[in-house]
Amino acid sequence: MTIESQTYFRHYWSQGLGYEEFLRRYAKPDQRSRWDAARNATALTEPQSALLAGFSREMHVLVLAGAWCGDCVNQCPIFETFAAATTKIQVRYLDRDEVPELAEQLEICGGRRVPTVVFLDEEGNHCGRYGDKTLSQFRKLAAELSGAACSTGLPIPADSLRPAIIQDWLDEFERIQLMLRLSARLRQKHGD
């Protein structure tokens, strides 16, 4: 398969796992406790919840992740919080090491970084991708210039950084939602 194929990502999305199933299959108990802590630390503001509730187009979101990855621990629960706020977002997870062909296609800066998110429309057409770390995370790391980028012991980001990461991701989800909402093809299909 090639990345240009319209069915390429649709195929992988259909093989993806829900959040809980992904964690049951891949997370060790200590990893699971970190994922649970990050999920509990993820909260939306009222305007963020209202924005998500107003989404009108179905979005399929494919996440290439690793239960062992600190960046995934800190970011994937955000996607689940978004999905819980609207019926229009459906998220599926794949373990990076279980799908090497996809991991190769989704390399970022020459590496198999996770999480990597692929956004698809309701029919499985590729709309965009985003991943590794958000802009706020990169700004913080660049300012500090210290340590490994992704160790299994990464703590949940400080209270001041976590809301910025949530907003970074929400901005990307909103960008894709607006792309879908304004798509001439989808507007004709839905009569709006």
Keywords:
single chain; 192 residues; alpha+beta; Glutaredoxin; four-stranded mixed β-sheet
Structural summary, described in words:
- The structure is a single chain.
- With 192 residues, the chain is α+β, with helices and mostly antiparallel strands.
- It has one domain: Glutaredoxin.
- It has nine helices and four strands.
- The chain has helices spanning 8-15, 19-26, 29-40, 46-53, 70-85, 100-105, 135-144, 162-182, 184-190; strands spanning 59-65, 89-95, 116-120, 126-131.
- The protein has a four-stranded mixed beta sheet, with helices on both faces.
- Helix 5 links the parallel strand 1 (59-65) and strand 2.
- Helix 3 packs across helix 5 and helix 5 (70-85) packs across helix 8 (162-182).
- The protein starts with 7 loop residues before the first helix and ends with a helix.
- The model is unreliable at 150-154 (pLDDT under 50).
Task: Please render the helix and strand layout as text.
Blueprint: H1 8-15, H2 19-26, H3 29-40, H4 46-53, E1 59-65, H5 70-85, E2 89-95, H6 100-105, E3 116-120, E4 126-131, H7 135-144, H8 162-182, H9 184-190
Parallel strand pairs: 1-2
Antiparallel strand pairs: 1-3, 3-4
Number of domains: 1
How would you sum up the major sheet? 4 strands, mixed
- CATH superfamily (homologous) name: Glutaredoxin
* Uncertain residue segments: 150-154
In DSSP terms, counting alpha (H) and pi (I) runs of 4 or more, how many helices? 9
CATH fold-level name: Glutaredoxin
Alpha carbon gyration radius: 16 Å
Can you count the beta strands? 4
Q: What is the H/E string?
A: HHHHEHEHEEHHH
Structural class: alpha+beta
Mean pLDDT comes to 91
Give the fraction of residues assigned to helices: 40-55%
Placed side by side, the strands forming the largest sheet appear as: 2-1-3-4
CATH class: Alpha Beta
In the CATH hierarchy, the architecture is 3-Layer(aba) Sandwich
* Envelope shape: globular
Proportion of residues in β-strands: 5-15%
